[in-house]
Amino acid sequence: MIASLLARSGISDAVLSPGSRDVPLIVALERQPGIATRVVVDERSAAFIALGISIASGNPVAMVCTSGTAPLNYAPALAEAFYQHIPLIAITADRPSEWIGQDDSQTIIQTGIFENFTKGTFDIPVESDDPDRMWYINRSLNDAINTATSGIPGPVHINMHFSDPLGETAEIEEPDIFGADSRYIERGYVPHDMSSLFEELGARMAPPARILIVAGYMKPDNGLSPMLCELSRHPNIVVTQEAQSCLHGYGAFITNVDSTLRCAGKDNLPVPDIVITLGGSLTSALMKSYLRRLPATTEHWSINAGERCVDTFRRLTRIVACDEHTFINGICRHIPRRKDGVATTFKTSWLDASATAGRLTAEALYMAPWSDFKAMGRIMAALPKNWWLHIGNGMAVRYLQCFDYGKACNVSCNRGVSGIDGSTSTAIGVASACGDSRPVILISGDMSMQYDIGALATADMPANLKIIVINNGGGGIFRFIKTTRDLDELDRCLACEIKLPLKKLAQAFGFRYYCATDSAELEASMKRLTSSTTTPVILEVVTDGTVSAGVFTDYLKNKLTAI
Question: What average pLDDT does the segment 452-473 reach?
Fold first, then answer.
């Protein structure tokens, strides 16, 4: 029943982890036409691989594991999926409820273990010959799948009780598909009762109102960028984006948010009348601080189709309950025609600050000694066009924000929860979904790589995956942030000075290996990495962590200047 419902609901991928109690599920999905299965032993990696497949494909992905501690390993990826609005369907096998807590092997209380970061938990009782029981099970499974995919997507947990690991196999009558949630607003469709709202909001956004649009992380949407470009041509509208917003403004948007705010001084830029936020959370601490310090007269409109009230900046005045595409499309249709040639101090101040910041960053990159900052700038300059970039958390994503990431077709990062766990597994999932159509490059810190080192043992490693590891001797972010950089315990307890034998690991798991210890070696290694099409690659970039922390601090203080 569950295998048939998944297939008929358009779910074509499942990641399976072997066990005893989940054998019925594995057999059913393996034999189900229309569902491609992938077997991953480690449940934590399996869940992040499923996350990556869903991110890249845009489709829900199912994952199956056995009972006991196995489901607990799904938690990090499910939390990430919850905050990124990714529709993962976690199916966990369980013992019959009457045996929970009775010292039966491999049993824990599984119902509700993910309730704080899933859209719903669905406890499916042991199968039965009773028609009412089977109708209830069928209805519950339909409800679970629809919950994951309707409205704002997100993960769900289906906990299925089995009296035995595997009984007999039998054919059953095809179950019915229940209707999807009718409250969902299709992308690009504006209901008639919202037209008057967009007319009102469009009029509010016309000059002389000063409008700042702030884009956080979003799923790729090829239609959103050109509409935002059109909107940004209005003389009073500024659009800022972060790397993982997956927008392509081709010069129309401010992409160097951190350095722009730092260069101009966050208290010196003109104050917007209306701030409009799109997408999820922001990486930039400076932008968060700037928005939280705005006067009470500034309005904040949150474009949020979800049911939660999200007031990140403590300035929320209006929730527009639709997706980003619907909102921007509606505003473009209803905002008064722009007056070409009319400029405002608000817009020119932001654009001038962004241009100055770009020049200072280029000078800093030229002047900087060999360091994480130098390496990241060179990597981004050598990144081929239209590759998919998956970026690790910690310092990696912060370095990325300094440079031009526009050549990447998409930028993804586990920023829903911002953990360092699972970055490699997620990138493997992205690369698996992209297949031969697009190379995928992961840029990771050494601590993040060590944390997810088991992912390198994944079977059928996609050849289109290229991994760059910034090896600076441990957690570089702890050498940078004020609260930890001067602690006596820094090296042993926080940065950890980890040992990561990447060359041996690459040889063991079938990766081609390159190493760079200076700019010249990095340039040569990037040429070899980007030309390798038949084998996955690991490029180790070796830097000094203490030097790197000092260089980035000097960059933020504008101390790196051209001769």
Answer: 93
Burial classification of residue 489, based on how many CB atoms lie within 10 Å of its CB (0-12 exposed, 13-18 middle, 19 or more buried): exposed
pLDDT tens per residue, range 224-276: 999 999 999 999 999 999 999 999 988 899 999 998 998 877 668 899 999 99
- From 280, 271, 289, select the one nearest 211 (Cα to Cα): 271
Characterize 266-286 residue by residue with b for buried, 16 or more Cβ atoms within 10 angstroms of its Cβ, and e for exposed: eeebbebbbbbbbbbbbbbeb
Kindly report the three-state secondary structure assignment for every residue of 179-238.
Answer: CCCCCCCCCCCCCHHHHHHHHHHHHHCCCCCCEEEEECCCCCCCCHHHHHHHHHCCCCEE
- Beta-bridge mates of residue 301: 276, 318
β-bridge mates for residue 159, sequence order: 92, 123
Q: Is residue 419 located within the same domain as residue 291?
A: no
**329 has a pLDDT exceeding 70:** yes
SS3 category, 278: strand
Distance CA 11, CA 32 (A): 11
Inter-axis angle of helices 345-367 and 545-556, to 10 degrees?
150
The domain that holds 93 is classified in CATH as 3.40.50.970
pLDDT at 255: 93
Query: How does pLDDT run across 293-304, given as a tens digit for each residue?
Result: 999 889 999 898
**pLDDT tens by residue, 525-554:** 999 999 988 899 999 999 998 899 889 988
Chain CA centroid to CA 349, Å: 31
Structure tokens given for 240: 């800022």
CA distance 349 to 236: 11
Does one domain contain both 403 and 331?
A: no
Task: List phi, psi (to 5°) of 388.
Answer: -90, 125
Higher pLDDT, 138 or 483: 138
First-to-last CA distance in the chain?
70
Sign for the pseudo-dihedral over CA of 415, 49, 323, 250: positive
Among 29-33, 138-142, 191-195, 467-471, name the one with the lowest average pLDDT.
191-195
| 481 and 374 in a common domain | yes
pLDDT at residue 54 greater than cutoff 90 = yes
Which of 288, 223, 236, 300 has its CA nearest to residue 257? 288
Query: Which residues contact residue 166 at a Cβ distance below 8 angstroms, ignoring those fewer than 6 apart?
Result: 23, 24, 27
Q: pLDDT confidence of 80, banded at 50, 70, 90? A: very high
Query: What per-residue confidence (pLDDT) applies to 410?
Result: 92
Residue 548 lies in a domain: yes
Which pLDDT belongs to residue 320? Answer: 86
**Both structure tokens of 239:** 């659009």
| Residue 172 falls inside a structural domain | no
The closest of 308, 305, 310, 253 to 281, measured between CA atoms, is 310
Q: Which residues contact 139 (CB under 8 A, 6 or more apart)?
A: 178
Average pLDDT over every residue of 461-465: 95
Q: Which of 491, 377, 498 is nearest to 446 (CA)?
A: 498
Whether residue 88 lies inside any domain: the answer is yes
Residue 563 Cα to chain centre, angstroms: 39
Domain identity same for 393 and 342: no
Nearest to 225 by CA among 245, 211, 210: 245
